[in-house]
Design brief:
Length: 194
């Protein structure tokens, strides 16, 4: 079976089976307020993710960057300057073979000699983000054989500042992963009941 990520509609496929995405699952289970998860926010997030990849490679053309994206990219650049992380993995789509969900890991970073799953956000801090990080933590463990001892959310703000959440340890990640599995079951039940 082949796994593919379709950029155009942000969908994940295992051969001809569409897999549940992490963000889609949290939204479907009612854990994300859809008023804030607009098409504009989704598109902005995608462009910021792409731009941060170019920052990591040292190849972002700042003069060609949409002015709306500049403060988010400045925030990321400040984060990189402040923490000097080693990038272990970047923007990798993968799936969980047992639970059949998929997602795109934003980064696995080594920050101050400690591995961490880091999920980016350009929106407001939401409690569901910690559940999302735990779902990605499992993807890293299953697919990359990387057992990161912690996870973070990195909020990139439109005022060119950033906020890195306090670390979420393994015990909380396990708890949050169980919450994610419950959300996945609810989301699938809702689809079947419709």
């Amino acid at each position: 079976m082949s796994f593919t990520f379709r950029e155009e509609d942000h969908s994940y496929w295992l051969s001809d089976r569409r897999l549940d995405g992490v963000t889609e699952t949290l939204g479907g289970a009612g854990m994300i307020d859809s008023r804030f998860f607009t098409e504009e926010a989704r598109t902005r997030g995608q462009h910021v993710h792409r731009a941060t990849e170019y920052i990591d490679k040292g190849s972002l053309d700042w003069t060609a960057l949409d002015p709306v994206l500049v403060p988010y990219c400045e925030a990321y650049r400040k984060f990189i300057e402040d923490t000097r992380p080693e990038i272990i993995l970047s923007e990798k789509a993968s799936y969980h073979p047992q639970h059949l969900y998929a997602g795109r890991l934003d980064r696995i970073l080594k920050i101050r000699d400690k591995l961490a799953i880091v999920d980016f956000s350009t929106g407001d801090p939401l409690p569901a983000k910690y559940v999302q990080v735990a779902a990605y933590w499992q993807l890293a463990l299953i697919n990359e054989k990387i057992s990161a001892p912690c996870g973070h959310t990195l909020w990139l703000r439109n005022d060119a500042t950033y906020r890195l959440s306090p670390p979420i340890g393994v015990t909380e990640m396990r708890r949050n992963f169980n919450i994610f599995l419950a959300a996945l079951a609810i989301c699938r039940w809702k689809k079947e009941a419709a």
